[in-house]
Amino acid sequence: MQAITDFFMRNMITVYFFYGLAFFTMGLALALTARHTSRLRFARAIPCMAAFGLLHGAHEWYEMGERIARETRQYAPSLPAELARLFLLVASFAMLLCFAVQLLMPAAAPRRRVYGPVAALVALWAGVSLIYARIAQTSPLETVAIADGLARYLLAMPGAALAAWALMREQRVLRLMELSQFGRDMVSAAAAALLLYGVVGQIFLTPSALPWTVHLSSEQFILWFGIPVQLFRAVMAVALTVFLIRMMNAFAVEHNRQLERADHARRVAQQGALDAERRTMVAMETMNDELRLAAHKLSLLLDVSNLLDMPDGLETRLWQAMTRIIEALPFADAGLVLISRWDGRSEAVMGAIGFDAIDADGDSAIYAQAVELGRVCAAKGLAVCRHADGAVIQFDVEAEANDPQHKCRAHGAPTTMISYPVTAHHHAYGSIALVRLSPIRYRPAPAEMALMAGVAQQLGVSIENALLTAEAQRHEQVLGEMLRQVVSAQESERQRIARELHDATGQSLTAVGLGLRGVETQLAQSACDPTLAPLVNQVRELRSFAQNALGELHHIISDLRPPQLDELGLAAALRWYVQNYARRRDIDATFRVEGDDSRLPPNYRTVLYRIAQESLTNVAKHTQATQVSVRLKVGDEQVELEVADNGCGFDPTLPSRLAGQPMVGWGVVGMRERALLLGGHCIIDTAPGAGTRVHVTAPVNHDRLILSSEEARVYG
């Protein structure tokens, strides 16, 4: 044993070298370890442990240099050199404490909570060292030796113990991360290296002024164990280095696992992207099919609608529409439309197409079957289909269109005929029957059956519009005839009244005036009698009243039926009426004509004259206007009449008899009805304070109205 002791004592420089090399190697290995992607708390604390190894290795090499100097020459320790060595020692132990605190603190702990305890222990060490040196009254070099020993007790031993405890706590984290094999290494490193190094290795100090160094000195360690304490520390340093370097493999395993997980996630993402792309392509194909089907459906419905809106007769339009339908539907080779309650009949077949392509022997039979199927469909209001075996099946279009077990498609025999009800606004107008003549087996798709149903609905709307249009035209004809009759009756009555007033009342007033004039003359000849003077004055006043009444009667007769209208035309009659209107109403009235009015039929003259007459009457009664203008424009295609004033105007959206509003009543209605009689329209443009403009336009069509014999007599 003594030989071994002597050997190591002779080779202490080598011991210091390997001692420092072990810690320096550990620090360098830890500093160069790739740990940036690791989720272990140990990875955060690695820089402190690396700094501990590098600083402590430098400290041991510094002591090695001092020992070499003492053996090779006379060497006296200096205070700066000892302070530098003490700084390396304390800094290394502080990094060991920092390593332990970082492992014990949560990951999100602030830096002050990590470095605060370390700074507190260093401050405690410095304070205790200074106080003890002051009490013992030691020299500076002895003070450094005291600080060295206290650093090992106050910094190294707590740091090593806390670090060992922290590493043992990390064992559970490694086990949770499926890295338990590294956990065993860490426990071994903590127990066999850090605890032995920190407690056993640091408790034996170089003899100094500290009293316990007498019994726990490095010389006592040699006596007890036969080896220098520096060798024991070096062995623990090697063990710690080995275990920690082995621990670094956990980072590589974790990194590989992260790469594997990332690669797996990438493959999953790629597969998901491929699946999404495939789903997108399928969805796009489905959408394209739906869009193509929708475009086909819209195109077919638009063509059918345009064909049904043509001005031809309904039967012709239905035949053209059925031709387009048969061309567009793969199922149908022939078809017909059955309309109920048409032209007073119970039903009628219209728009039949394609049946002439069948042989003469089977034509009537298939046609009769299609008609019968259409009757069943129209009577029940449900879609029906007929199969090659003669079975007739009814189905609900909306409920079964997308049903894979659709009654019509699920039947064993092929479908030969399908009939859909033709309805609009819940009213049945008949049915459409589509027939397949080809012997090739065919089962219509749900989309095709839905398209057939849409076509039937479009036919229903178009047939309803055609029926409503025909009814509206009939009503319009009746209304026009009634208006013509009313106008004819009005003008006839006006003419009769004017004639009666002229022939009877006018002659009577003329006779009265002449008689009064004779009486006035006789009384004037008897002027010598003063008592007759008042009687002469009374007769003169009566004769003046008779003359005024006769003048007013002539105005009334002219308003009822001006002779200028029949003798000179519309323009002359309007000019005379406007001039007379200006004198009677004391209003600045003007008249202007464009074009030749002689080409207007008599009914146009009467209607336009009455509209102008009613407009001017409304101006005098309601507008408080000072100016009014009448314009007549006769063109090649239409005639225009405009009456404009500068009056108060009115709000056309308000009721006719509101306070402060002109009356928009039967007079305006009559003007619009008269304009409608000519196939034109009457527009009243007005606003409060902006005047009023009555604008009438009507097409110039000599054949627009066919005058009756009575109308011809009235219009002259």
Could you walk me through the main structural features you see in this protein, from its secondary elements to its overall organization?
There is one protein chain. This protein is an alpha+beta fold and 716 residues long. It has three domains: 2-247, Rhopdopsin 7-helix transmembrane proteins (Up-down Bundle); 299-464, 2-Layer Sandwich (Beta-Lactamase); 569-716, Histidine kinase-like ATPase, C-terminal domain (Heat Shock Protein 90, 2-Layer Sandwich), CATH 3.30.565.10. It contains 21 helices and eleven strands. Strands 2-1-6-5-3-4 form a six-stranded antiparallel beta sheet. A five-stranded mixed beta sheet has the order 7-8-9-11-10. Helix 7 packs antiparallel against helix 9. The chain is elongated and about 190 Å long. The chain starts with a helix and ends with a helix.
Low-confidence stretches: 656-666, 702-716
Estimate the global geometry from the Cα principal axes. elongated
What percentage of amino acids are in beta strands? Answer: 5-15%
Helix content: 55-70%
- And the CATH topology of the largest domain? Rhopdopsin 7-helix transmembrane proteins
Helix segment tally: 21
Q: Any idea of the CATH class of the largest domain?
A: Mainly Alpha
Overall domain count? 3
State the total count of DSSP E strands.
11
Q: Rg to the nearest angstrom? A: 61 Å
In which order are the strands of the major sheet placed?
Answer: 2-1-6-5-3-4
